[in-house]
C-alpha cells in the first residue's frame, strides 16, 4: 500500500516537491487553485479497487470526484450510498464515479459494509474510494478548509466536502463545496451532468432548474439569422433571451 500519494511528473506542480507529508513546509502562496476550465491534476493513490492513476481512470469518460473528511461519519455514509444507487444513471451518461475519504483503504472497506447496510439493502457497492490518509490529494484539489489551513503544521486537518465534475478532456466543468452539516443532492449532480452534456452537444445554455426536455437558451453570441438556421423556430423574450427546443 502507498504510504504517500505518488504524483506523475507530467502533472506535478513544482510546489509538490517542496511539501512533505503533513505539509510541514506549507507556503500559502503555493496552494493550488482549481477553477472551472483547469486540467485536473494527475496522481496515483490507493483505492478500494486497487491503485488509481487518476488520468487513466478518467480515460474518455466524464468523471465525478467527491470527497469526505472521514469514514464512519453520518452524512457521508448517506451520500456514498445515494451515489451508489444512482450509479446506473451515471453509467448511461458515460460518467464514472470515484469517492475520496481522508483515511486509509482498509478502513474504507469496513465502512463500505455499513454503506451497503444503510443505503443498498446489502447490495453491491461498485465504485472506488480513494485512500487519502496523508490528505495530499485533498491539498492538491484545494479541499482543505479554513481551520485546516490554521492546523497544517500541527493538529488535525479537516477536509471539506467537494464535488468535481470533470469532462473527458480532463477539464474541471463544475465545482460544488458543502459544509459538514449539509448533505449533497445527488439528483442535482445528475441534473448538471445532463445540462453540461446538452450544452456541449447543441451549443446552447440551460436556464434555471433546467431538466432534459425543457427549452434551452440560445447564446447571445448567436445572431437571429444563425439561430433560425441552426435551431428553426425560437421564442424571443428579450433580445438577449431566446428559447428554443433541441
From TrEMBL:
GO terms for biological process, alphabetical: cell redox homeostasis; cellular response to oxidative stress
InterPro entries, A to Z: AhpC/TSA, Peroxiredoxin_AhpC-typ, Peroxiredoxin_C, PRX_1cys, Thioredoxin-like_sf, Thioredoxin_domain
One annotated GO molecular function: thioredoxin peroxidase activity
A GO cellular-component term linked to this record: mitochondrion
Keyword Oxidoreductase: yes
Keywords on record: Antioxidant, Oxidoreductase, Peroxidase, Redox-active center
The keyword Transmembrane helix is assigned to this record: no
Residues annotated as the enzyme's active site: 76 (cysteine sulfenic acid (-soh) intermediate)
Domain of life: Eukaryota
Chain ranges of the Thioredoxin domain: 34-198
Family matches, as PROSITE patterns: THIOREDOXIN_2
Similarity remark: Belongs to the peroxiredoxin family. Prx6 subfamily.
Protein role: Thiol-specific peroxidase that catalyzes the reduction of hydrogen peroxide and organic hydroperoxides to water and alcohols, respectively.
Protein name as annotated: Unnamed protein product
Source organism: Ambrosiozyma monospora
